[in-house]
Amino acid sequence: MKVEYAVKELTCKFRCHLVARTLSGNPTIVLFSSFSSMNSGYISDSGTLNHEFIREKDDFRGRRRGNGGIGLLGYEENNDLKSNLCCFKLARDNFDGAMSGLDKIKQMDFTENCFSGRFKGTFGSRKNEEELDGNEDVEDDRYDTDGEFRVLNSYDRKCKQDVDTLTYERDESEFKHPLVKETWRLIELRSRWNPKYEEKLRHLLRSLKPHQVCAVLHSLADERVALNFFYWADRQWRYRHHPVVYYAMLKILGKTKLCQGARRVLKLMLRRGIQHRPEAFGYVMVSYSRAGKLKHAMQVLTLMQKAGVEPNLSICNTAIYVLVKGNRLNKALRFLERMEIVGITPDVVSYNCLIKGYCDLHCVKDAIELIEHMPLKGCPPDKVSYYTVMGYLCRERRIADVRELMGKMEDSDLVTDMVTYNTLIHVLSKHSHSDEAVEFLREAEERGFRVDKVGYSAIVHSFCQEGRMEKAKEILTEMFEKGCTPDVVTYTSVLDGFCRVGKVDQAKKMLQQMFKNSCKPNVVSYTALLNGLCRSGKSLEAKEMMNMSEEEWWTPNAITYSVVLHGFRSEGKLSEACNVASEMIMKGFFPNPVEINLLIQSLCKEGRANEAQKFMGECLRKGCAVNVINFTTVIHGYCQKDDLEAALSVLDDMFLNNKHPDAITYTVVVDALAKKGRIEKATELTMEMLRRGILPTPVTYRTIIHRYCQNGRVEDLLKLIERLLLKQPYKSAYNQVIEKLCCFGYFSEAYNLLDKVLRTASRIDAHTCHVLIESCLMRGYPLLSYKVACRMFNRNLIPDLKLCEKLSKKLTLEGNLKEADNLMLQFVERGHISHSVLVSC
């Protein structure tokens, strides 16, 4: 091994020396050698990315000014030989630093298959690279500082703001380009990835123009996949993202909660020296806001200040929007005041955000006052300002205030048009104010406006949701009379409404009417009808209709299969439900864990735990998202059948399938074992739970206490309770132990545990003592009850007077007069009863 290591080390030094010798002779060879060394350092011997080496490559790209005769996509660079030579020296230094050691030497011979495997791992799983970027701090709800306002101090009134030329605008023609379509197709095949596909995608990447790369990113339905493709493309040789691609990626992430990914893309821009404008930071702020992280969203302003980027009106409006969305209206108002102080004049967008904030806090009067105040600031309100307040008033059904506001809008030279009426109709219909929506519909028609099918459909849908099918049919007939032909959305709303009220036959007639009026039903229409059939107990008919889907020229989707599956399950036809689930999986529609668990639970209730396990195994093999709850349900099913060996076998299978049991899983098994008297095995599993770092829940405590007390294993219980309390404190643990011991007649053991309870002298402790006193009294142990009462007095806990009077009579009957008198004297000494009352007794 030492000889082999020495040979490889000499080989490495020889290669480095060859690079240095070639530097002054042939730049082309140096370019190839240096970049080969960089590519060699991408991947470690374990098949993972060498992040340190990637950062060196990023620094190399950031410093590079020329391309040495090799063009980089979407970026023009100067072909300066001196700059290239400097870059080659830098690459050689990186090569020397990265390739030291035997592990680095192994990287030089890394195969293309391993590289393809890395790509497959990126696109084949749903783990995002932003998830590996570190966890951020938990958002603090008390966050209310103004530290981020300092960024406004960097605003220069005299500096002219540049026009943003880096924003990508969607062009439908680019989405239809063959290169874009083929790239999208290859990315969608990521589940069946191989080196051949990757090489083809790499070749396509070098042929794509910057705006075509943006089109590929926008065409991907899953933003996580788009982000992974962005990262993968950035690592490819002979390719470099154009700045417009960065902005396109940030714009996509700004519409999601993938804030970590957005922040990484922004930092990548800063490291690469890409031109960064305030809009880029705004996208990251919005992404944080969508994720509910207001503090981190506002800290992006500090990051922008450190980057030397001056704020503009756009980023200020974004900050106001983020604050309003995070329920920090007062801070948004302070931010607006600070904007005006530094010379940034708010526009109508700024004020509209504040109006939305007032309405969200139900301060509609303040919103109206702000609208009236806007002209004094030189910024008259627009229709959006009025629509925002009108929307709130419509939700509250304040129609008179809506009409008053419409009058104010017309006084401000803003004409009430069809858009206004459509807005009111939609908001009222959405909040089940159908009659008021019809009033505005009539008013719009009287003023000469023609309501389109969208407005009519909203009203029809609202009536159907309320179950007022006659009114819905009237509106539908009115649409025909006025030449407004209903579309598939309108018909589907009526069809679904009939199914909701149980009139499935009427829904079938509506489906036939759709065909007569040349309106082809879609999968939503059929799914609504199938749902109505299943609700009426006609799941077999629904299944037959779904089987005829090919003849009817429609294709069931995942929701369609789920409707029929749950229809069979609710009718108790579990075998048919399992068959539908299998067919669903075969068609490529995977049921979610909740749907799987409902079916498993139904099978277990009928004692068919074996079938439940078989069904779960099939789902697991087909790639469904089976979780720990599904396994726990199967385990509970076996425990109900008293088949503990099968339950323990499923518990072992969880580890084999990388599904780690939780506290509920262990509690179910421990309860079943202890119920059968297998205390040692139950204790072993409980200790295993603690070793795995799983903390017991209150249910775990109650279960263990009940079963151990039931079996009379008090010493084992106390030892186990002490172990559990070390991991997870539980204040009433010993209280529950005493009460359970009383239930099973272990009074002396319960009395011996009073020291554990009377340490705190709380109400819970008093209740536990009362339980012990009453239990002992009922079982014929009045002296033991007397001792408990005396110990309560010693801890300044006053026992229940009526219970002690009952105890005193019992002691008297058994001849224990001294104890009976002493018990009542304790109450007299503490002033709870008078001496005269005691004497009369």
UniProtKB/TrEMBL annotation:
Keywords of this entry: Repeat
PPR repeats, residue ranges: 277-311, 312-346, 347-381, 382-416, 417-451, 452-486, 487-521, 522-556, 557-591, 592-626, 627-661, 662-696, 697-727
- Output the InterPro entries linked to this UniProt entry: PPR-containing_protein (IPR050667), PPR_rpt (IPR002885), TPR-like_helical_dom_sf (IPR011990)
Per UniProt, what is one Pfam family of this protein? PPR
NCBIfam families for the chain: PPR
Q: Which family does it belong to?
A: Belongs to the PPR family. P subfamily.
Recorded protein name is Pentatricopeptide repeat-containing protein
Q: Which organism is it from?
A: Nepenthes gracilis (Slender pitcher plant)
